[in-house]
Amino acid sequence: MKNQLFPIIMCLLIVIQLSAQTASFSLPFEAKEPDELGVFGQHLFFSNQWPDNNTEQLWQFDTQSKEFIKRSDDSTFLVDFQLAPNGVFWLEKDLNNRFGIGQMSLWFWSGEAEQAPQQLQSTSAANARLLGLSEDILFLYFDISIQSVNLNTLEVQSLGVAPVLSQEGREIIWQGRYFWSVSDGNQNHQIYWADPDLGVQLFWQAERRVYNFVPLGDRLLWREGPRLVRYDWESSGPQYYYEFKDWDEQISFFGEWFGASLNDSLYLFPAATVSTGSEPWRTDGTIEGTFLLKDIPTERTGNFTPGSFTRYLHQNDGKIHFLAYTKLSEGQQHWESDGTVEDAVLKSELLGTDDRVYFGYPINVSVYVLYINSGLDGLEPALFSPTAV
Questions:
Q1: Which domain, by its residues, includes 97?
Q2: What's the whole-model pTM score?
Q3: Has residue 10 been placed in a domain?
Q4: Furthest-apart CA pair in the chain: how many Å?
Q5: Are 370 and 386 in contact (CB under 8 A)?
Q6: pLDDT in tens, 100-145
Q7: Is 253 contained in some domain?
Q8: DSSP designation for 329
Q9: Dihedral sign, CA of 209, 215, 221, 223?
């Protein structure tokens, strides 16, 4: 939820500001860049920097009463928050010790006006994070400990000591467990999981750094360098099922393994090989179902074959949509595919020669937000709807 939702948050804040003007009231804070947003019932929750001390605070906006409420305390700053089916959880830390060990508190509010927020836990910690939900469990991290909160009883339980948590994209909650990868920067790469009943356990000793867990139903996939790995829920353990023989390390960093799933059975992703450059591939977790989807014709740059730079993959209406180049000098194009070679087709010319997409992502099932630099007005957001072309 963090940072990637900035454009839609700002749009909502603009709507709120317009509503405030119409109703003759204004925002009770200086609007900064919120980096989290969530809707629970009639309440909009978001973080915003408090101008007096430049720290994050948790705000609640009641869409019926048009009332703003600051949920976090003035003497603390917001660390993280998570919406759940039964309410909202948040972490706040003592403002006087924001960069070191300080008092860290876990709070919960049911959303009922007559009920006050509950403090579920308070302890000294330097770092903490809410990791996500699995059915009736919230996973969280306090310094070196993985913990869980039962959504029904609000009981907090320690699951065990955890090695340093991974970066986003190298962690996932799947089949009721929280999985994450650990790397010491050398040759030691591991995957751990935390289970509410079984605690923290070492799951897999990887041969190379782990990139991006991908759930496909009862099958979990990830990448280790040029090799793809599959773990079936009922199996005894993970297994390597595909290896890129001419993996191109030079341009493989253009995507860790970010793609899009289709119908919980296929995963489309960009992969870089020496012979084709970066192009769209697909996998279903089997050797037979893993292959180059389309080698989009692209101009060469000297002896370098950059490929189409496939990126920003997104599922919409039974298709995977993505952006790609045919010529680096002629801007990007909008493509779509249903996961078959025959159906990887060009939909439209999206951007002109001078436009450069710095990054983009889908904000719902039909709209992309793209950050475009046309060379005239600098970096600006733009909307693009695949269904509108």
A1: 1-126
A2: 0.75
A3: yes
A4: 69
A5: no
A6: 888 999 999 888 877 888 999 999 988 899 999 998 999 999 888 9
A7: yes
A8: G
A9: negative
Q: Cα separation of 360 and 25, whole Å?
A: 34
Helix (H) or strand (E) holding 7, with range, is helix 6-22
Pick the last residue of a domain from 102, 126, 150.
126
Nearest CA-CA partner of 39 in 19, 74, 64: 64
> 224 and 346 share a domain?
yes
Question: Which long-range CB contacts under 8 A does 360-366 form with residues at least 24 apart?
Answer: 360/311, 360/312, 360/323, 360/384, 361/4, 361/312, 361/314, 362/312, 362/314, 362/316, 363/5, 363/7, 363/8, 365/316, 365/317, 366/316, 366/317
> Residue 81's pLDDT band (boundaries 50, 70, 90)?
confident
Helix (H, G, I), strand (E, B) or coil at 52: coil
Number of domains the chain is built from: 2
d(CA 84, CA 90): 11
Q: Based on the domain organization, do 109 and 238 belong to the same domain?
A: no
Asked whether residue 7 carries a pLDDT value surpassing 50, the answer given is: no
* 225 vs 247: CA distance, rounded Å: 9
Same domain, 112 and 251: no
